Structure formats: structure tokens, C-alpha cells
Amino acid sequence: MTITVKITISLKDGMLDPEARAIQHALSNLGYTTASLSTARVFNVGIDTDSPEEAKIMAAEMCDRLLANPVIHSYEIEAKK
Amino acid sequence: MRFAVLQFGGSNCDQDAHHVVEDVCGVDCDLVWYKDGFSRSYDAIVIPGGFSYGDYLRAGAIATRTPVMQDVCQHAAAGGLVLGICNGAQIGAESGLIPGVFTINEYPKFICEWVHLKVENASSPFTSEYTKGDIIRIPIAHKEGRYVAEEGVPQRLLDEGNVAFRFCDAAGNCTPESNPNGSALNITGILSEKQNVLLMMPHPERAAESVLGSEDGKKLFDSMINCCEGSY
């Protein structure tokens, strides 16, 4: 069975997000006032296993070793059968 | 004495770095393709600028996970010199050779311009030909060059002498206006704890001949060569 893991990588709280600031500015030019805006990257990874727990552990390892940089990023993992 | 310039897919300053080391400074230098690895020992390894793997994921993230980078880290751990320039600095930081990372500029666009740098440390293997406080002109060319580290780390690096270069104005003032990418404390050249690794966003190899508008970067390579000569 393949379990799809959704990994969301975000900037840690307090980290400057220049892209978000530029997007917020562009939205403001279109007339939208936004109280906050942040960006994130999503990876959908299919893992061959029956165990959502095992898939999540593997996904966390992927984040620690490549997908995220612990200096600036935090991540969230959701497993879907 | 022999230097190596490492090449990844997407490196594009490898030939410039090789030219400066071999033709301008007169030191034997090999271009080493990352898949071939190191077939002999080197006094210094230069990780050049470019866009390895198209900057996918994060600048330097993919190149960092290639086997050859383990050899670079071993070379550094054994005290060998490692110079990371621009994308090479991003790769070195991702590899943990210094604390912190280089990430997207405060104003998120590519910047290509000449900048002034203040020499903060003139006793390292990379900066001994300079004098502390020197103001030098070297170009930058990057979109992900803003130095960020955990709270307190930039000041500690500065206090402990592990900052080689900071962005400054022509008079040597390190101000927000003279900080093109928003780096912490204007820091853009960081030395490892043992000071045998220097990671920097500016391109000294583009300022090593008068025909290019500045020779200020040549002293960096001369410093490395002097350091290596001292070990023979």
C-alpha cells in the first residue's frame, strides 16, 4: 500500500519572509487589505508502507536531512491513506 | 602546492576561479567534476559560484547532499582550506561548515553590483594580506545571499573574530543602507571556528585583475597561497 504524506515547510515564526511581503504589497495594489500573509512549500510524497506512523517517521527524516533547514524552517506532516 | 575547484552541474564561476588561481596567481589548480571526486590531495578546495541544480529546493541544498561534499567536509575537518564563493558559500553553509544559512534577500530580487566590504579579520588564512579595517571593492551577484543565523550567533562570530567581511559604504560604515541583501550585522564573509573555511557571497575571483575594475579580491587568493606555502 502507498501512503501519501503531505509535508508543509514554513519559515519559523519571526523569520523575515520577503516573498510574502512582496505578495502582500501586490495584493494591496489590487485593493485587498491583509492582516498577515506567509508562504510555505508543500511536498506530497508517496511512501510504500501500510503504517501511517512509519510513513510519518520517514517523512520527518526527509525534512531533517534535506527538505527543511532547521535554522530557518519548521515543518508539519500529515499522512493520508 | 595544488588547489582544486569543484564543479557541480550548474556551477558557472568554476572557470573564473580556476583562471585566477592558475593564471593570475600561478598555482597548479585542477577542475574536479563532482562525480569524479578527488583523486589526489589538495591544499585548498574552492567551491565556486553558480546555480547548482538550478537552486532547486534551496540554493545549495542538492549539491550539499552529493558524496563529494563529505570529502570536502573531511578535508575541512583535517584543517585543509575550503573557500566557498556565492553558491559555494550556500553549499558550505548547508553542509554545516559554518553556523547559519544564506537565504533569500531582504528585497527578494537578484542583485548584481559592486559593493564595498570591510575587512574585519586580517589574520586568517584567507585575509592575512589585508589590513584590519581595509575597505575593498568586490562584486556580488545573488538572490539568496542574506546571512541569517540563530539569535546571538552573528554577534558572537563578530566578537570571536570569525567574521572576515561585512558590507559597508565607501567610508567603511556598516549601515542598513550599505547592506544590499539584509544580512545579519552586514555579515557576508564567515570563517569557521578553526578559520580554515571561509564562506562568502561576494566574488573575489571577479576582482582579481585590474582589467576587471578591481584587484582587491586577489589578496584573498594570495593569502591562501601564503598560508599553504607556510605549511611546506
Keywords:
heterodimer, A: 81 residues, Mth169, Chain: A, 3-stranded antiparallel beta sheet, 2 helices, 35% helix, 33% strand, B: 232 residues, alpha/beta, Rossmann fold, 9-stranded mixed beta sheet, 6 helices
pLDDT averaged residue by residue of chain A: 95
**CATH secondary-structure class of chain B:** Alpha Beta
CATH C-level of chain A: Alpha Beta
Task: Work out the count of structural domains of chain A.
Answer: 1
- The gyration radius over C-alpha positions of chain A equals 16 Å
Principal-axes geometry of chain B comes out as globular
- The residue fraction in helices of chain B comes out at 10-25%
The number of helical runs of chain B is 6
In short:
Chain A is an alpha+beta fold. Chain A contains two helices and three strands.
Topology:
The complex is a heterodimer of chains A (81) and B (232).
Chain A: E1 2-11, H1 18-29, E2 40-48, H2 52-67, E3 73-80
Antiparallel strand pairs in A: 1-2, 1-3
Chain B: E1 2-7, H1 14-24, E2 28-33, E3 44-47, H2 61-64, H3 67-77, E4 81-85, H4 87-94, E5 101-103, E6 111-119, E7 135-142, E8 146-148, H5 153-159, E9 163-168, E10 187-191, E11 197-200, H6 218-230
Parallel strand pairs in B: 1-2, 1-3, 3-4, 4-11
Antiparallel strand pairs in B: 5-8, 6-7, 6-9, 9-10, 10-11
